[in-house]
Amino acid sequence: MGKPNVGKSTFFKAATLMDVLIANYPFATIKPNHGMAYVKIEDLAPEFEKISNPREGYVKGPGGKWRFVPFELMDVAGLVEGASEGKGLGNQFLDDLAAADAFIHVVDMSGETDGEGKPSENYYPGKDIKIIEKELDLWYLGILKKVWGGFARTVEMQKKKFEEAVAKQFSGLKVKGDDVKHVILKNKINVDKPSAWTNVELSNFARALRKYTKPMIIAANKMDRPNSEANLEKIKAEYDYTIIPCFSDGELALREADKHGLIEYIPGDGNFKSLKDLSIEQKRALDKIKEILDKQGSTGVQEVLNKVVFDILHYLCIFPAGAKLSDSKGNVLPDCYLMPLGSTALDFAYRLHSDIARDFVKAIDIRTKQAVGKDYKIKHRDGLEIMTK
Ligand SMILES: Nc1nc2c(ncn2[C@@H]2O[C@H](COP(=O)(O)OP(=O)(O)OP(=O)(O)O)[C@@H](O)[C@H]2O)c(=O)[nH]1
Ligand SMILES: [Mg+2]
């Protein structure tokens, strides 16, 4: 998400290679785009001198070194100031955000687009972060305010659990009772008498809830433009978000050139190899991209995807594995799942099938061949074989 014309659809297309509209004007995207993006991890099969055959996602690199594990990514319409009151695409846009676990806020670092995505000069992109934060906070606050008077009194009179009652109100935004509890404890919020809260207290609560339940990373895009670097330094000094410099346009070009066999490029790498005789234009475009890769280490797109899934949402990758690593059809490690931190061997069994969980006896770690029990906390890149009754 982000304001119009910052490169959200370009980032999305680079990550998913889906055919979506990219255009140099605001509100090119209206209906959200859904697609599969991938985190990049070291595959497990090479440890056993094999190459995986993923059912979803893919492997790339010498010896099948890198595995790309799918997750759902969404590209939405641009957000402008006043969206929470219906400006721009307004509430429709906000509804599209409800299902997200986290936000990638794409910011145009060039300063060449204003708050509404129109051409501009020397616009300070830091403003966009404040605007988006404000609109998201007002969105959460609006949901609370709509019902607050009656809601607060009912909670008090019927001695309902505050966190459960709030979670119910926000169920469409995937907010859980435990999330609300966490926010209350962390911010030392007194929930004995919510009907007596001031507007400021209500706003603060909405903001804290929004921050915790929709964590955000900044994709600082269009780093190939002249003013981007100076803006990046300013924004880094002003905000304590994870901010990753990005060149989405370059990533898109590299992934498409790789797909068409012009170059060999592994997403996230700082380099690529030319495979064919390229035209002068193609060569010039790739040289320009190489300059940014050399400066930044990568285009930043894959880094954003990995950071949001692993560092912000704390997911782990886990491989279901048989003794020989392959399924009945001879496919090596066909599956790899993303699971939340703290998941156990039993949670993993449930993820495979409820029958497997019901008949769970033990799980075998395919590296050590040791047995682990139901409560074993899975680690990133574990390979487990579940033994059932
Ligand atoms: N220089 C440069 N331009 C970029 C980059 N990424 C995207 N653009 C350009 O920015 C313009 C807008 O890109 P889109 O991907 O359509 O932007 P959007 O945020 O999806 O726009 P809306 O859907 O209208 O909100 C296009 O002209 C892109 O080519 C980049 O990394 N560098
Ligand atoms: Mg778009």
Write the layout of secondary structure elements.
Layout: H1 8-16, E1 33-42, E2 58-60, E3 66-75, H2 90-97, E4 103-108, H3 126-157, H4 162-169, H5 177-186, H6 199-213, E5 216-221, H7 228-238, E6 243-245, H8 248-259, E7 263-264, E8 273-274, H9 280-296, H10 301-312, E9 315-320, E10 337-340, H11 345-352, H12 354-358, E11 360-365, E12 371-372, E13 382-388
Parallel strand pairs: 4-5, 5-6, 9-13
Antiparallel strand pairs: 1-3, 2-3, 7-8, 9-10, 11-12, 11-13
Helix pairs in contact: 1-8, 3-4, 3-6, 4-5, 5-6
The structure holds guanosine-5'-triphosphate and magnesium ion.
Guanosine-5'-triphosphate is lined by residues 4-10, 22-24, 26-29, 78, 117, 221-222, 224-225, 247-249.
Distance between the termini: 47 Å
Q: What is the helix tally? A: 12
Structural class: alpha/beta
Q: Determine the strand fraction and express it as a percent band.
A: 15-25%
Radius of gyration: 23 Å
Low-pLDDT regions = none
Structure summary, number of beta strands: 13
Strand order within the widest beta sheet: 10-9-13-11-12
Largest sheet: 5 strands, mixed
Order of helices and strands: HEEEHEHHHHEHEHEEHHEEHHEEE
